[in-house]
Design brief:
Elements (H helix, E strand, L loop, with lengths): L2 H22 L5 H9 L10 H6 L7 E4 L3 E5 L7 E7 L16 H17 L6 E4 L15 E5 L9
Antiparallel strand pairs: 1-2, 2-3, 3-5, 4-5
Helix pairs in contact: 1-2
The structure holds adenosine monophosphate.
Length: 159
């Protein structure tokens, strides 16, 4: 099999797992979705469901957008306000653990966008940001993203 078709099959597999993960997440736990996603042996630049959201191939509830980042409401909210903030260009950042020094600017941009969106959403009493990484971190979509959670009292330690 050619390298190209092998890659296509892997990408299709990743895409299917990502779609499946997003659909089953309301039935199964976040942990199950994360383990299902981690089971797909694909490269860090493979497309995910977030690429479809960026390209407007599937609908999402966008709350903020600029030339670098996109923020939209999580399909399976874990708090009254739950927003996912992503870079429009992944550039190898499938997760925080894959970051390199050249990513510092976009990482800072994601943080600052969380602050902007928190203000826009009226989270004046506080909020939480979360970055899940890898199977142990319950990451289910391998395109780096910041979760912005608010609108209720958070607990500590987190689960
Ligand atoms: P993580 O588990 O940290 O990788 O976070 C991925 C998040 O993406 C989960 O909270 C999912 O609910 C969310 N998600 C997956 N698919 C969609 C979608 N189509 N629209 C909005 N959020 C999604």
């Amino acid at each position: 099999m050619s390298e190209g078709s092998n890659r296509d099959i892997k990408e299709a597999g990743r895409s299917r797992v990502a779609v499946l993960s997003s659909h089953i997440v309301s039935m199964a736990s976040e942990k199950d979705a994360a383990l299902a996603a981690a089971a797909a042996p694909v490269p860090s630049d493979s497309p995910t469901i977030f690429d479809k959201i960026i390209n407007k191939e599937i609908p999402s509830n966008v709350v903020y957008e600029d030339d670098k980042v996109l923020a939209f409401r999580d399909i399976n909210p874990q708090a009254p306000t739950h927003i996912v903030i992503i870079p429009k260009v992944k550039d190898g950042l499938s997760g925080l653990s894959k970051s390199e020094e050249r990513h510092c600017e976009i990482l800072g941009r994601l943080m600052y966008t969380a602050k902007l969106v928190a203000k826009q959403e009226g989270l004046d009493d506080g909020f939480r940001i979360v970055i899940n990484d890898g199977p142990n971190g319950c990451q289910s979509v391998y395109h780096i993203h910041v979760h912005l959670l608010g609108g209720r009292q958070m607990n500590w330690p987190p689960g």
